[in-house]
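Could you please consider the sequence and fold appended to this message?
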Amino acid sequence: MPAIWLHAFVRLTATTPARLYGLYPRKGTIAVGSDADLTLWDRRRLVTVTHAMLHDRMDYTPFEGLTLRGWPMMTISRGELVMRNGEVFGREGRGLFLERRPGFDA
């Protein structure tokens, strides 16, 4: 049995945050008219987290040294491959700003 079911993972990492930030259904769902970034995961892969493997602007991670089961392998954003096997292809500034709608949509 998985540690977390797929539908629960999607709800916790995509749908609920999109609702909380007033971005649903523009984000957080796969539907016509939504802006979906799709990530393919290898749910069996074991990875020990290091800061060097992350792509953020922080100088540390509280998860350094933690071994995880499951890791993203590929991300497609608006039909464009932006990450594969840890290599980022997306160019800086290609994102779109989505203004949030007021109110809680959960």
Notes: The chain has a mean pLDDT of 89. DSSP finds one helix and four strands in the chain.
